[in-house]
Write a structure and sequence with these properties.
- It holds the Pfam family ABC_tran.
- The chain is α+β, with helices and mostly antiparallel strands.
- It has 2 domains: 234 residues, Rossmann fold (3-Layer(aba) Sandwich), CATH 3.40.50; 118 residues, Beta Barrel (OB fold (Dihydrolipoamide Acetyltransferase, E2P)).
- It contains 9 helices and 20 strands.
- The strands form 4 sheets. Strands 6-7-8-3-9-10 form a 6-stranded mixed β-sheet, sandwiched between helices.
- Helix 2 crosses helix 3 and helix 4 runs parallel beside helix 5.
């Protein structure tokens, strides 16, 4: 396997539209890197440039010590798994798996051994004599992964491979793919993986690190825990996490200690937030995850007063939707701690947990509450 590097990579189309804006990304040897972001953020375009299916307009792409900008896809040392599986419909699974090795004129015994090994790893031995039309979606996707795996490429590329599967199969395939990556690493043949998805659950559960993209820019690259706990900006904060982070316009003042005003209500910033805050007084965006808010009696100290406008029972937890002025908040409360007497229209206090409160500069979106 090999390290992958993107240096100042750009993509400009003939009509003048710039899809990718000089991005830099280093993917370690054997790392599972996920590119995630909303539709149109250029994550698939970036993957296709790595694959050689799109030309780059500027910058440099390296795999190991090779610059691959001008190499054809077949000479880049990559294997790609597509969203639509892209299996040869007239070939049985066995031939689909081995076709790439036959093109490379590998010896017959080597092809048979590799086919057997890959089909065993992916548990598709019993499918080898079936045609693609006889496979379920999950089976077809495992065959597509096997066809990439058998080539022993330097870099694996996955382009939203699970988006055509139902929720149960997606969850199963997430585990299979990450288990396969760990198994190869444990066996001393680590696989460098670039995985594109718009699904943040896939990103958070699969990636060693995650690259969050927006409009052709990289917003943050970090491990899942860091993205969740220390988002670099308001976009990452709002994109990562379910339910998404509560974000609302507020005013920061520094009257002795920092204070936050929202919808005409002012609370003191908790001591831990004060210690890490690096911001001048003025307009900010207050960010609090739903899991880090508590429901209090109306009028409780350092809690915002609001009105419940919806209650969602989710089984093990309750999503409480509270309106504070024009801002809508969600608080996630464990079911056993939820007051069943509460109902729509009740006024309650909403208190943020200080250690998990974030302050973003309203103009730039930068998180100004990350200072140590």
């Amino acid at each position: 396997m090999a390290e992958l590097q993107l240096k100042s990579v750009e993509k400009m189309y003939g009509n003048g539209f710039k899809a990718v804006h000089g991005i830099d990304l280093d993917v370690k040897d054997g790392e599972f890197m996920v590119l995630v972001g909303p539709s149109g953020c250029a994550k698939s375009t970036t993957l296709r440039m790595i694959a050689g299916l799109e030309t780059i307009s500027g910058g440099e792409i390296r795999i190991g010590d090779r610059i691959i900008n001008d190499l054809t896809p077949g000479k880049r040392g990559i294997a790609m798994v597509f969203q639509n599986y892209a299996l040869y419909p007239h070939m049985k699974v066995r031939k689909n798996l081995s076709f790439g090795l036959k093109l490379k004129r590998k010896p017959k015994d080597e092809i048979e051994a590799s086919t057997g090994e890959v089909s065993g790893i992916l548990e598709i031995d019993e499918l080898l004599d079936r045609l693609p039309k006889q496979l379920s979606g999950g089976q077809a996707q495992r065959v597509a992964v096997g066809r990439a795996l058998i080539k022993s490429p330097e870099v694996f590329l996955f382009d939203e491979p699970l988006s055509n599967l139902d929720a149960k199969l997606r969850a199963s395939m997430r585990v299979r793919i990450t288990d396969l990556h760990k198994r190869l690493r444990d066996e001393g043949r680590p696989a460098t993986v670039i995985y594109v998805t718009h699904d943040q659950v896939e990103a958070m559960t699969m990636g060693d690190r995650i690259c969050v993209m927006k409009d052709g820019h990289i917003m943050q690259v970090a491990d899942p825990v860091t993205l969740y706990e220390k988002p670099a900006n308001a976009f990452v904060a709002g994109f990562i996490g379910m339910p998404e982070m509560n974000l609302a316009d507020a005013e920061l003042t520094m009257d002795g200690t920092p204070k936050l005003t929202l919808a005409g209500q002012t609370i003191s910033a908790p001591a831990d937030l004060s210690a890490r805050l690096n911001a001048a007084p003025g307009p900010v965006t207050l960010g609090i995850r739903p899991q880090h808010m508590t429901i209090e009696t109306d009028g409780a100290a350092d809690a915002f007063s609001g009105v419940i406008h919806n209650i969602e029972f989710m089984g093990h937890e309750v999503n409480v939707h509270v309106t504070i002025g024009d801002a809508a908040f969600i608080a996630v409360v464990p079911t056993e701690k939820f007051d069943l007497k509460l109902q729509r229209g009740d006024r309650v206090g909403l208190r943020p947990t200080g250690v998990q409160m974030h302050i973003f500069d309203r103009a730039s979106g930068e998180n100004v509450s990350l200072a140590e």
